[in-house]
Amino acid sequence: MQFPFQAGDLIKWLSVVHSNGLAGAHKRAIPAEFVEHLINLRVARRDASGELVITDKGRLSLHMDRPDALHKQTDPDEDPAPQQDAPPTARPEPD
Question: Is 90 in contact with 75 (CB distance < 8 Å)?
Answer without folding.
Answer: no
